[in-house]
Amino acid sequence: MAVLFASAALVILLSVLGRLGILRPHPAITIVNVAAILLMAHMLLRLMDDFTYVPTWVMRSAEVILALFILATVFLTPSPPAILPSWLTITLIIYLILVLIYTTVGFIRASQKASGVTRRRMRAVAVGSIWLAVTFLISGFGSRLFPHLAGLWTAFGHLAGLGSSLGYYVGFATPGILRRAWQEPELRAFLGRAARLPRLPTTEAILREMEVGAATSVGAPNASIGLWDETAQVLRFTVNGEPLEWRLEDGTISGQAFTTQQALFTDDLQRDQPAYAGIARARGVKALLVAPITAGDKRLGVLAVYAPRAPIFADEDLEIVQLLADQAAVILESRALIDEAARVRAREEVTRLKDDFLSAAAHDLKTPLTTLVGQSQLLERRALRDPAAPADLGGIQKIVREAQRLRTLVLELLDASRAEQGKLVAEREQVDLTAIVRDVCARHISHRHVCELETRESVVGMYDPTRIQQLIDNLVENAVKYSPEGGEVRVNVWREDGWNHLTVSDQGIGIPSNDLPHIFERFHRASNVDDRRFAGMGLGLFICKGIVEEHGGRITAASGLGQGSTFHVTLPAQVEAHAGGNHSPDGK
Amino acid sequence: MENESPILVVDDDPSILETVSEVLEFEGYPVATATNGREGLDAVERVQPRLVLLDMRMPVLDGWGFARVLKERGIKLPILVMTAAQDARSWAQEIGAAGFIAKPFDLTDLLSAVESVPLS
Known about the structure:
In chain A, 58% of the residues lie in helices and 15% in strands. By secondary structure, chain A is α+β, with helices and mostly antiparallel strands. Chain A is elongated, with a radius of gyration of 43 Å.
């Protein structure tokens, strides 16, 4: 960069001195002048290569042309008057203009891929190049084509030259104040987004957003956050979707920044991190800014911003990267707090569910137990009062009935635990769903409830008959239970595309939409189920789901508050595979 | 005679209702029954019980609702809360009951609770 400015200064100095008559035309001066101008073009290509990429053949051709021009100048300049032949001058100028247009286009293209401050700097350089091309155009051809306007051309030439120097200065040697101003919008946008980052669904998503934010704020193509893993003693990065681990003793710049808790800058990664020169080269990374991410005395990791070319960064960028790293620490800490709060809530929820379950279970067991105790004591008292009296059959029957009820409840608890282990379904045999529904319906008909079966033909499959009976019984019982005002329970059974379908619909209280996704969960009871009114442990549907899924089927519910509910069971029909087998009643 | 006025048992579980009334009848108390709070209120009007054994969780009108309506109607009637819930004691206090019987209860628990309520 210094060479570029020096050559430009030399060209200007020589032209001013020549004009003032201090320097007499001399072949040596002409050669120096031409060399300086050519060097400028050449340096511009080198700088462009630093920022983006110039194909090798272009660089090589430029070098050859540089040599050819100098040779031509040395051998073809007549002396005196020590002025270049005009065809050579014109060729030289055309060549320079071509190089400048090439760099202008190159920088504009590169700027579209870059972001933030780097993008603006590249645009400034492109402006500088195009103005320099204009300068050459004017000084080379203006006076030659329109000699009567010489004064005007000179003035234009100076103006264009000034524009070009400004463009180059701002682009290549961006003053700190301008750098800051150009970084500000991205930085501000990132900090503005920071508050909502901790709420993103995953830590990964937060890291990726912070990386993009940090890269754009500094104007670098990439950034990467390495999180410190205390157990494994490594810094974990994700680069291009792939995990990367650095141990501290690997001697990486990131590791150093983490150990020393200082922001570090290198403009040559291959030199400063020789052990990993290969990786740096392979990933096309040359310059690196890295700052520790630390919250209080908690070392969380590092923020690394890197670029394929050194001049993307300035020393002051270290401060910005440190600022971004501090912001990252705040975001990560907030995230940790949010996660911790969620964990506590989840633990509390599990405990609450268990407590609810225990008290519901206890409540459900207490009712039959009360009758059992009461009836047996009554029996005892009767016998004591009149030992000769005949056995109180009614009382004995009640005791038997309540003992059965208790047994059912205990079995339900056991089933719930079996469902949890996927061990509900035992021996399968040919089962007619329609026949089971007919039985179940008959049992649930009351003066309040009608149970309507819409099918007559049998729908068979290979199922565990006890469990299928339990499933249908449970669904119909629920339909009746949650229609306290009475109504119609409709059951439909049919076969379609190799699946057996069963639906149970009621006109009851329905299920609120926010409970719908959870009703098959253990212990879950819908929020509109007042457990003072509807006894139950919240296990029935959990067991139903277990039964259906162990049969390879699916159970879904459609409902709305106050709109009744429809449960839809789909079971594989698969009867063909087993029909006529040993389980078939008439297959013997 | 005041002694002739019955004990009203309100519970939605038919077997509990049956057992409790059989026990009380066996011990010589006249008994009336109801399967929820609303039926209970009707029974209060009809039989003018001297004591109510009240389940709390019931359909249509629960124990709380029953007690509230009694209060609104200005009927002062001793109530014994009869529940399987853990909160028997606090529920009894909530509705200003004379006491509580926690399910599952023993016959003696039931009878001593009934006897502990003074006749008005």
